[in-house]
Amino acid sequence: MATIDPRSGYCPSNSTFYSKRKPITLPSNQSIDVTTFISSRAHSGKIAFIDASSGQKLSFTDVWNAVEALASCLSVNMGIRKGHVVLLLSPNSIYFPVICLAVMSLGGIITTTNPLNTSSEISKQIKDSKPVLAFTIPELLPKITGSNLPVILINGEELAFTSDSKLRIIGTLEKLIMEKPAERRMKERVTQDDTATLLYSSGTTGASKGVISSHRNLIAMVQTIVGRFKLDEGEQTFICTVPMFHIYGLAAFAAGILASGSTVVVLSKFEMDEMLSSIHKYKASYLPLVPPILVALVNNAGLIQKKYDLSSLKNVLSGGAPLSKEVTEGFLEKYPSVRILQGYGLTESSGIGASTDSLEESRRYGTAGMLSPSMEAKIVDPESGEAFPVNKTGELWLRGPSIMKGYFSNEEATASTLGSDGWLRTGDLCYIDEDGFIFVVDRLKELIKYKGYQVPPAELEALLLTHPEISDAAVIPFPDKDVGQFPMAYIVRKSGSTISESAIMDFVAKQVAPYKRIRRVAFVASIPKNPSGKILRKDLIKLATCKL
After folding, report:
1. In the beta sheet, which residues pair with residue 87?
2. Which of 22, 262, 389, 413 has its CA 20 to 30 A from that of 118?
3. 3-state DSSP call for residue 431?
4. Helix (H) or strand (E) holding 406
5. Which residue intervals define the domain AMP-dependent synthetase/ligase in the entry (predicted)?
């Protein structure tokens, strides 16, 4: 019998870390789709979604009636079958989950894309995923004009757009969900192993890839979220600021919250005033966000608290990057009645991986949290493949019920990321401490190689952010024929600051080994980040090297 250290979760006989949290349960019935699983959960909730700007509400009955009507129409009138891919190009909307759930209930596969993406980026995704149908809003129609896809408009009048010969507007969502579901429609058998979503990974270090997630992956995600927030113990109100097309938004809102009877207030796009007034107006208790928004809440706390009543807010959920001690304590000082909870996950793990589930855990500064329920981990030396015990840094490998099936039409990328034994190589350099807390050191692919030394950008960024005149920073590898690469910093000065390049380089040089010194500085108005708050280093590398 293998011995597992109860404190760290580490088992020396197989070099594996096991979650210390209570395991999740998955349905024994293999022939169940995630939509049926969510809709069959008992709860006493009444209002499912509220549109923050219009005040329009969808009750749980409204949602499930709309899902059934849309699924019926897609199946009977449009021939959508198991395995068909459907594109959803839309900002956050109370109808976003309805579309996802209807498509998945048929065994169809939902692929989402960022409304801010360019036409060529969306075109690449369409070419790769081969959807048979698209849902979008009138304002975004120009971005898919050349695709020749049949389109259902989420809002707007179909007649106004039929003049464009390259687009086939075949209906509006509002009309379709008002139709009575067909009494007879083809009901295909959908299993937990069938593909449910095809989300594209953020591509912070390279080209974006289609991540294949099964119904089982999403059911595991739902069970983890409901258990983590103890949502079965009473109705809560969540503010939806994070994008629903991203795994973070989809995880929390299209599935996890709907399964528990909680209410979600949906913001179509992030605006600080609208977010704060929605907390005030709807007495929201949970606020999921990314670290830059949390920093803004700290920096503007005085003005915010004069203008808005945030007394209902009990939990802030932060994901995308670990929070520093300064940010954590700064927030708790300004908002003493609010808990900070953090999470770590990837598109490839259905947004699940590790989390802090209490304020005490979040005060383990810099941690991504402890392993999520039913999740296993290894810390592996990228060079030798040796698996490490506690407090040694290597690549984090994860295995569990929420890990993806693979990358779409990309066997090479799948083989290099997902082992035949189910281990996902995350590409994150981490260590796990003696209490089972995971600390992310950096992205493996983002390490700067200076004369053979490895320099983690995140370490230098954390140091730069301690400077009183710096509001944000990013560090990238800059190519050099003599040393290979050296660290270059992009800096956002605080308002009124005139700090110089040399002052920044001196500040870092006094606190790090010589090979970690910043050797080039550029000042920018803002650091480019993806929707989950991760720095888009590839964009900065392109900016830095385009003049070479």
Report:
1. 111, 134
2. 413
3. strand
4. strand 406-407
5. 41-408
The contacts of residue 430 (CB under 8 Å, 6+ apart) are 368, 379, 393, 394, 395, 396, 438, 439, 440, 441
Q: Where exactly does CATH 3.40.50.980 map onto the chain?
A: 59-214
Determine the CATH number of domain 59-214. 3.40.50.980
CA angle, residues 380, 382, 385, in degrees to nearest 5: 60
Q: Which one, of 41, 210, 192, lies nearest residue 111 by Cα?
A: 210
461 φ, ψ to 5°? -65, -45
Which of the 8 DSSP states describes residue 252?
I
According to DSSP, residue 119 is labeled H
Report pLDDT digits (tens) over 453-474: 778 788 899 889 999 999 999 9
User: Where are the domain boundaries for CATH 3.30.300.30 in the chain?
Assistant: 447-545
Tell me if residue 228 falls in helix, strand or coil.
helix
Token pair for 113:
């894309």
Domain 447-545 matching CATH 1.10.3720.10: the answer reads: no
Task: Name the nearest CA neighbour of 354 among 433, 463, 259.
Answer: 433
Three-state secondary-structure class, residue 424:
strand
